[in-house]
Amino acid sequence: MSETRINPAAFGAMPEKEKRLMLGNEAVAFGAWEAGVKVVASYPGTPSTEITEVISKLPDVNVQWAPNEKVAAEVAFGAAMTGARSLTCMKHVGLNVAADPVFTAAYTGVNGGMILAVADDPAMHSSQNEQDSRYYARAAHIPMLEPADSQECSDFVKLGYRISEELDTPVFLRLTTRIAHARSEVALERREDVPVKPYEKNVMKNVMMPGMARKRHLHVEKREEFLARAANEMPINRVEMRDSKVGIITSGACYQYVREALPEASTLKLGMVYPLPMELIRNFASKVEKLIVIEELEGLIEKDIAAAGIPVEGKKYTGIQGELSVEKLRNIFRGEAVPEVEGANELPARPPVLCPGCPHRGVFFVLNRLGLRVMGDIGCYTLAALPPLNAIDACLCMGASIGMASGAERANGKEFSKKTVAVLGDSTFIHSGITGLVDAVYNQESITVLILDNRITGMTGHQQNPATGLDIHNQPAPQLNLEKMVEACGVNDIQVVDPFDLASMHKAVSGAVSRDEVSVIIARRPCALLSKQTCPPLRIDGCKNCGACMKLSCPAIERGENGVSINPALCIGCGMCAQVCPFKAIKSGEEA
Predict the structure, then answer these.
(1) 388 preceded by cis ω (within 30°)?
(2) pTM for the whole thing?
(3) What phi and psi, each to the nearest 5 degrees, are found at residue 41?
(4) How far is CA 179 from CA 23, 47, 157, 297, 452, in A?
(5) Could you read off the pLDDT of 525-582 as tens digits, one per residue?
(6) What is the distance between the alpha carbons of residues 165 and 168, in angstroms, rounded to a whole number?
(7) CB of 117 within 8 A of CB of 156?
């Protein structure tokens, strides 16, 4: 392998660069576009979603939402293998889904450049766990770059494509929520005209049967050894000497925290977090009295440095949970307590709730009334676990609700299933619920599955999916028929119900759970934020203050000293509260 020096400054700059404030995600999108990316395939997942949304609005790129991250990674790999620069974007848990093709893509190599943008979520602002994607880089033997601001988001994408093509490897670009969703200045550049590389059939390289894979594994090891040496000279890994008493090794958002909280400390800023520039680290350590690693989540860098025999500290100060911040670092290292905001402890709690008019509300109200165990899933509807709906028992990962319900039946018998249902959204069902349904039918379970079809991928901001009939550009696309898909999986008992009709929903669920076969109920009504419903708001006349309507957990229904009222600014007139009022005190605003 030729030891090509990788120079991240070697980009074709515009004579007069336009500068713009951009989210880190926007900068990744523009950086990829400027680098000549041809194909982008992703599945939406906060905090990564905006990358694909932004690039879908730029010309000369083929962009798509895929059914899940595995398919997205495979599409991106297929484009790269046949010579085009490609990009796939996902959140950290999405990388779990994509891991199968990603690990083997490290063996095959890519031909055209391939970037895998993965956004971690320290503190779990919108995620079910705090996993650290840097471990995937190590496990898959794929280099990982980590930008510290929006300009680096753009620059590192371009550098990533050069590394990818020169070293024949996919490249991870690791973001965290703070980098993905913070704005800083970015200098825009012209789009680079990158021709698609010729594709040549190469079975020994691209077909990973055991005999070929053993030889390619040797190639991966040599590539990683070269990259570890090259990392010592890459300008993206830079030493900033100041006071020699303390030297801090850091990367990404943590670099910004360190510079503000500890301006006197010397720093080694890592732009490549895997593999590490160990000689550069050793040299830096020799110049400071005390070496500390500041990194969020796991102590991966600290452990690698310690394993190299270099005295180092880190996680004993910061722990492995949550986000770091300027205030936390000041408190830890300078003994400066975080000042309390006056009145902060007096602010009322604001737990998240389903939107007014959300079609999911009626489903969970009925499930609660029926006293059913609910295996939940990833989506807005997970909020139904909270009071007063109290309707979800468990939530694991995308598509797991069906498998959990099947496992519960296997462990406890069919009678247990008559009090248990699985609930998931339309996009989640397509993402990874179909195989669970096939399994349940094949193994002759008697579970009940509710597909909450709100005609969109709601939780991540209204992205299209194969069941909506529109593509990422909101252009007509073939529409997956959920009823026919469910029927093709072998389900005989299929019902489509309007979730606003609580009586029909109650009847459908009661009937389904009584059957000794797999039953599927499709609760179909558009997301309240899409439907633009114009029904007049409801009003209350003659309220007995019984509180029955409050159990719907609708933000438009308010309870005060004088009883219950409906906020007309929030009410969309769905009518569910009128259905549950035992005194018929809730009426349309148009009624006399």
Answers:
(1) yes
(2) 0.92
(3) -135, 130
(4) 8, 10, 14, 15, 33
(5) 999 998 766 688 999 988 988 999 999 999 999 988 778 999 999 999 999 999 999 9
(6) 5
(7) no
